Amino acid sequence: xxxxxxxxxxxxxxxxxxxxxxxxxxxxxxxxxxxxxxxxxxxxxxxxxxxxxxxxxxxxxxxxxxxxxxxxxxxx
Length: 76
Description:
This protein has helices spanning 2-12, 41-45, 50-64; strands at residues 20-26, 29-35, 70-75. It is α+β, with helices and mostly antiparallel strands. It has a single domain, classed as K homology (KH) domain (GMP Synthetase, Chain A, domain 3, 2-Layer Sandwich).
């Protein structure tokens, strides 16, 4: 899941070296914190949050195959 999120994010941004994903264990599942450069926030979020929603959908689908719950947080 972490690798999937990292690959997706790096393909979207202009500064792929600034992309990092941190995995935290929460009470109700795993939290993936996606950090990107401030200038790339718009590319990751998209118009009206459509790209962010698509990223979350793909990561949740990958997690559901492993019977896990995942929350993706995007941090600039």
